[in-house]
Amino acid sequence: MSLRHAVLGLIVELDGASGYDLMKLFEISLANVWTATQSQVYGELAKLTADGLIEVAAEGPRGRKEYRATDAGRDELRRWLVEEQPRPARRDGVLLKVFFLGQLEPERARAYLRDSAATMGERRDGLAALQQEVTWGDDNLSLYGRLTLEYGRRFFAMRKEWAEWAEAELARHAAPPEDADRA
Amino acid sequence: MSLRHAVLGLIVELDGASGYDLMKLFEISLANVWTATQSQVYGELAKLTADGLIEVAAEGPRGRKEYRATDAGRDELRRWLVEEQPRPARRDGVLLKVFFLGQLEPERARAYLRDSAATMGERRDGLAALQQEVTWGDDNLSLYGRLTLEYGRRFFAMRKEWAEWAEAELARHAAPPEDADRA
DNA sequence: CTTAGACCTTCCAGTTTTGACATGTCAATC
DNA sequence: GATTGACATGTCAAAACTGGAAGGTCTAAG
């Protein structure tokens, strides 16, 4: 149950936020780490409230509800951080395709990897640019947000390099018999 | 719907396999790419059969059913490879924790990253050892399986290095005022 | 002969995720 | 005064995923 802790964690760090606020955070700062839809966020807020981990601290203009973490909520976040060990999710649609690329003509397969390398390069550059632009504060969210952003940059860089390597590997196999016994 | 294409893809490549065979493949060769439980695999086989993408080609000893792809199935796999563009799944429990590590004492946070780095190092070494051990054939599954295995190795290596870097960053912030103006 | 272990499938109950649809308020602009 | 757009919440059905339980068959070793 990670969505629950993502929501809870944001509320604890922000010390008060509405579902709408959280949605924006999911879209922006948590985008590379955990995604969530509206229905998930609002649903989870209701559950967290029912379980006494958060509470409605104030109500604002448009039916806005500002949630704040209870002591039980802060304890639970801490417990999750310390005790629970996440199993790394091993699911990757891009890689799944690579696995079956042998079903295409070699030239198409290599084109796919070249495309992939280009896309990853762009993403890496995008994050690198972001790193330059953003002025970081001294708060926790800034510090740890910076760490995850750097992770994203490294991830895309790794991926780009791998795609280039893989493309070269395919090239080697596609036309190998050229210099096998050329003295 | 990627599970569907993972199952379909394996059946196409193997040119005939039972649910049991597929399960083993998911556990071994597809482990770093896509995971699936028994109920998912058998369920998907039923659906694929109903949709005419695969068919029971033979029945074996223990109620074993050997599935084979139909022409429609092969077309669908190809269509998926060429047309559909996967959206990279952005969900990572380990990173999610890092995002909230500011809730712990700095020393605990650093310990978490050190642990993480160690775990990633072990995994990387595990895959590296596997690369040495395995004797690769000349078939497609071998070639492309080799590519994804190398991806896994690079992924864990990147992750280890990042965790070490992040730990150092935290250390810098934990005790920064030591040599600011030490001539 | 018997028994352990690999082989093999089916079903299910509960949870999570997805992707809408529905509803309404407030602030600023035209 | 009307319209647009950001703000804000809520509900739902369908799909996907989890984690088993249950039941049965063949083979080889002891």
Automatic annotation (TrEMBL), chains A, B:
All copies of domain Transcription regulator PadR N-terminal, residue ranges: 7-78
Domain of life of the source: Bacteria
Transcription regulator PadR C-terminal domain boundaries: 91-170
Pfam family, one: Vir_act_alpha_C
Gene3D superfamilies cross-referenced by the UniProt entry: Winged helix-like DNA-binding domain superfamily/Winged helix DNA-binding domain
InterPro entries attached to this UniProt entry: Tscrpt_reg_PadR_C, Tscrpt_reg_PadR_N, WH-like_DNA-bd_sf, WH_DNA-bd_sf
Protein name per its UniProtKB record: PadR family transcriptional regulator
